[in-house]
Amino acid sequence: MSGITFDAGGLIALDRNDRRVLALIARTMELGMRITIPATALAQAVRNPARQARLSRLIRQAGTDLVALNGPDATAVGLLLARTATSDVVDAHVVVCAQRAGQAVVTSDPDDLRHIAPGLPLMVL
């Protein structure tokens, strides 16, 4: 595993000062691994950046990759949704990002992710 990818639930847990998430981030950084944040998941979690200091700090870290939903990823997301007969663009984008980076997903809601990608490693909060 090369690091962790956050879904919206993981980002919300960070924003709520979840100690498990803080420890996971610290350990990931200690090991020199990358943190991936799909921009679509960030869009679900961000509400008031001025008051979401932990989230803002994580995004600015040198070891964090904020991944936009660009054309190639949009195509990959659409194909994944069609293949799994699902419709959640954010979950599919999280899966695409995590699989490309070879990372586990930090999530508070594993069911949809397991349906889209049964073998994807998950870190359930």
- The CATH class label is Alpha Beta
Q: Beta-strand level of the residues, as a percent range?
A: 15-25%
Strands across the major sheet, in which order?
3-2-1-4-5
Q: Assign the CATH topology.
A: Rossmann fold
Q: What's the β-strand tally?
A: 5
CATH architectural type: 3-Layer(aba) Sandwich
Distance between the termini: 18 Å
Mean pLDDT: 96
Radius of gyration: 14 Å
Q: By CATH's scheme, which homologous superfamily applies?
A: 5'-nuclease
Number of helices: 7
Poorly predicted regions are none
Order of helices and strands: EHHEHHEHHEHE
User: Which structural category do the helix and sheet elements fall into?
Assistant: alpha/beta
Task: Please characterize this protein's 3D structure.
The chain is of the alpha/beta class. It has one domain (3-117): Rossmann fold, CATH 3.40.50. The chain is built from 7 helices and 5 strands, in the order E-H-H-E-H-H-E-H-H-E-H-E. The protein has helices spanning 8-15, 19-30, 39-45, 53-60, 71-84, 89-101, 110-116, and strands at 3-6, 34-38, 64-67, 104-107, 122-124. A 5-stranded parallel beta sheet has the order 3-2-1-4-5, sandwiched between helices. Helix 1 (8-15) packs across helix 3 (39-45). The longest helix is centred in the middle third of the chain and has 14 residues, at 71-84. The radius of gyration is 14 Å and the shape is globular. The mean pLDDT is 96.
List keywords for this structure.
125 residues, alpha/beta, Rossmann fold, five-stranded parallel sheet, globular
